[in-house]
Amino acid sequence: MNDLRIPGTLSLGILVMLLLTLPMGVSALASYSGGHVSIDTPVADDVFAAGGQITVNAPIDSLIAAGGTVTLNAPVKGDVIVAGGRVITNNAIGGKLVAVGGTVDVNGDVGTNALITGGTVKINPGSTIGRDAMISAGTVTSAGHVMGNLSVHSRSFANTGTIEGKNTYIQTESHSLFKIFTVLGLLFSVGWLILGLILLKIAPLRYRVVEDEVRKSPVVKLVVGFVGLVGACIGLFILAITIVGLPVALIGGLLVGIGVIISVFFVSSAFGRTLFGWLKIRANDWQAFVAGFIILNILFRVPVAGFFILILAISLGSGALLYTVHNHWKVITGAAG
What we know:
By secondary structure, this protein is an alpha/beta fold. 46% of the residues lie in helices and 29% in strands. It folds into 2 domains: 8-177, no CATH class; 204-333, no CATH class. It is built from 8 helices and 12 strands. The strands form 2 sheets. A 9-stranded parallel sheet has the order 1-2-3-4-5-6-8-10-12. The protein has a 3-stranded parallel sheet with strand order 7-9-11, with no helix packed on it. Helix 4 packs across helix 7 (305-327) and helix 6 runs antiparallel to helix 7 (305-327).
């Protein structure tokens, strides 16, 4: 397995870059999912894709993707945000490139900045980074042209290309376990984000109902959610030790776990929507969700305080779910909006 090094500031930087690259004027996005996703016709929209193998063979406006292997064979007008086991860009990117992968190969031009982290990262001959490049990896090779500054954190670095700005190289030592958990944590956050986008897309009405509950009496929802989660854990434990009730405890635990995972989504949307309201910026549902999700995930990573922020978010979201089930059962069981 490749040696990985991702400083905390770079990990947070990737999340912040994700927020900054979202276009405020976009009202929808085209989504694709499956074992093998192949985009073979032009898409005049922002593309979201998730799958085992993702291949872009036709021009698109922008790309957010997560998969085992992501290959870009056609030009992208705007930004590319991608996470995968292997990431390959074989054509021009008009905006930024934000990439996380075991192996990242840059074979095409990048219009502005590149922020890349992975096991092995290569900027191959013939490729040009229009502005700055920040790379963190086990092994980095730069044989292309960087028009701005190049900053590299890696165990080994080979530079045979050209750099117009400042070249900063910091050699890192091997801390394999820490690196593995850092990468896994970041990839989990990306997957968590994708799951939220899918949920928002397939059931927007039900999603919005729960989000609205988050903003109504949030302190009450927080207390109800926390007490409900503690009570559920105690009840499930009692069921489990009776042996007879173990199957019920297992199913109940699975449902509680699902509730905990999705509870943060509703808090993220409510937080993002409130933030945009304060800033007087018009944003649609998915933009509010992504903004809130990214900021909350940054806060979750704050030492000590982050743990308590996570508990508060889960409790608030869980309380909103409980109130929604109680007050809006007909909406929940009706047709998805």
